[in-house]
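User: Teach me something about this protein's shape.
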Amino acid sequence: MSAVPARWGKVTMALRWSPEWPTAVVVALAWVVLVAGLGGHGAEVQSGHEHHHHAHGGLVAALPGWSLMTVAMMLPITLPAVRHVGLNSIRRRRQWAMALFAGAYVAVWIAFGLVVIAGYRLVGASLMLDDRTLLTLALALAATWQLTRAKRRAVLACKRTVPLPPVGWQADLGCVRFAVAQALRCVRSCWALMFVMAVVGHASPVWMAVLAGLIWVEELTVAGRRLLRRFAAVLGIMALLVAVGV
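Assistant: First, the predicted structure itself:
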C-alpha cells in the first residue's frame, strides 16, 4: 500500500516543478477541438481560375478559428517561458501569472491574425488570385524566409527573459512585458509559416500538423536550429507540389 502514496508523491513533485502543465492541457484540448472539426470552417484551397472568395464569413468570423489554431500551434513553443513564469512567481499568484502570460502571448498572435488574414484576402481579391496560387506563393515566401539572417536571429533569441517582480501591478506588468517580448520574437520567426496557415485555414489538420512540427523542432530543439535550410527545401518542395496540383 505504501508504494501508491510514494508514487503519487513523485507525480506531485513532478507537477510542482512543471507548473506549465495546465497550459499544455489547454494546447491538447485545442488540438482535439480542431481535429474533431468543431472549430468552425477554414479556407479551402481551390484550383482553377476562380475568383478568390470566402463563403465562410468575414474577418471577425475567422478570428475564433485563428485563435484556436494559435493556441494549438504557437503556445507549445512558449511552454518553457510559461514554466519560467511559474517557477519565478510566488506560489499564491503562480497560476494567475502563467494565465496572464499565456493570454498576452495569444493576444499578440490574434492581432497578427487580424492583419495577415485581411492582407491575404485583399491581395487575393485585388490580383484575382485563387487560393491555390496564394498558397504556392505563401509557401515560397516561407521557404525564402527560412534562409534569412533575421529568421536565424529570431530563433536564437528564444531563451531571452525579462525581470519578473514578485507582487503587485509590477508583477502583472512584468508578465505581460515578458509575454509580448516572447510573442513578438515568435512572430518574427514564424510569421511566414503562420501566413501559410492563414491561407490554408484551421480546418486542415494535416497542414497544421506538418507546419506545427516544423515550428516545434526549430524552436524547441538545438538540432532544429541547424536545420533551417533543410526546412526551407521542404517548404520549397511543398510549394511545387501545390503548384502542380498534387
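Now, about its shape. The two ends are 59 Å apart (CA to CA). Residues 41 and 203 are 6 Å apart (CA to CA). If you'd like, I can walk through any region in more detail.
User: That's plenty for now, thanks!
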